[in-house]
Amino acid sequence: MTLLLAIVACNDPSVPPEHTGTAPEPEETGDTGDTGDTGDTGDSVAPWFSDSLSYAPFGGGSGVSRVCEQTDRDPEAGCPGCGLDLDATLRCDTTSLWEPSVGPTADGAWFVNCKPAFYHTLKAGEALVSSSRYIQWKGQECDVLVHPDGTTGLLVNETVTDAEWEGGLAYDGGSGREPIIERGTYFVEPLGIALVGGVPTVWYERDGSPAAAARGVDGAWASVATDLPGEVDWRRVTVGPDGVPVGFGDRDGELVALIQGTEYALGEGRYPYEWDVARPPPEGLPAGAADAVLVRLADAGLAVGFVRPEGVVEHTLADTARAVSNCDADTCSGSCHEVYTGLEGEGTFATARATDGGAWVVWLSTSFDRMVAYERAYIEYVGHECVVTVSDDVSAATLKLVHVAENGAVTERFAMAVPRPAPAGMAFDYVHVATGFGRVAIGYLEFAGQVRVIALPE
Fold first, then answer.
1. Which of 36, 148, 380, 396 is the one with CA 20 to 30 A from 440?
2. 386: phi > 0 → left, psi -120 to 50 → alpha, else beta; which?
């Protein structure tokens, strides 16, 4: 297949020129010493594994503050009649946001970025986010667990690949690092975190074998039995209304789910960022709700599947088909006016469970309108490839949020015009949605270093 190398015009209007520089390095505080050294952080807590910065307990304590400035937008101007009570831009002094996620609070929203690690709370009308925190660890990923009382915990994948592969998993409920799996020469991958009977529970893989761990009242974590699909890739876990875990995975391109020992086929899976498992709100789900919801990007559009032990009911959302160009790049010659609309694929949609048991689905639809020119050229160390030059790009994007009931009824909450996102460093997820406290929060990664955070009542 012909390889396309995109060269975007330098005057791309979606990328403000002031964001082309190098982000400032955070100020170092405290004595961190070597990896694993406790250092003097001013708190009686153990530090994260860090080579350069002191430990900042999740949500507070000593450490390093990163500059993130909140600029409020007029909710009515951006989305008239949508009922938004928070519409803000969070701009951080970094150009390396890694899969940012958001969630609602009782009066605003929270924002977490995993690499580098930031935790912020946002409230409408507060231009500066005084509660922003910077947390440094030596690892890969993070995930947030929200309790019904609004307190939060952070799950950290401490896996690193410096001299040799080292895997580890830890949790911070606000008082310091709690090891789930101490770092060692094995592969560790977190699959999900949830409250089961009020107890924080983590599902993970260790050298390819699935397992689970539950947190004791003393902060110690102990392994518990788990039942997840076997011989699959990209495992993920959520919990149903009764707290029973539901496992998902990709088996040779087909998605499967496992509920109480019974496996169900869910359709084509393709890539891990082209399907998403809905997380329940912190308060849990109502009795009788479906065990799980999975949304996948099929050729016909976003398919919303409600999973129960007796089977899967799937609904395809209108106007969500995959974007397919009207131009032919195979010949690699001439120019073409590219005009088409659809979802670009990876990271352009997300889902979360509604408090009524349904699902919220948010997606980013792009309307392309640009000129593309094709030319074969020699690229050093690569060889002859088809080079695509983009010009006169006036493409636009729409961010849409809908509620989907299990019976297939779809209620649109908003559809707002947004700038088409610029490539944002290492990010894979451009949109994120979460529920809780009767509210919905949406995060939209506009470009490297800037996230738009929206919140509204359910």
1. 396
2. beta
Q: Any idea which residue has 């779809």 for tokens?
A: 410
- List beta partners, residue 178: 171
Per-residue pLDDT reduced to its tens digit, 241-252 = 988 888 888 787
Give per-residue pLDDT as tens, 218-262: 889 998 767 776 777 777 888 889 888 888 887 877 787 887 777
pTM, rounded to two decimals: 0.80
Quick: pLDDT tens for 344-403. Answer: 877 789 999 999 999 999 999 999 999 999 998 888 777 888 888 999 999 999 999 999
Q: Are 453 and 442 in contact (CB under 8 A)?
A: yes
CA–centroid distance for 70 within its chain: 20
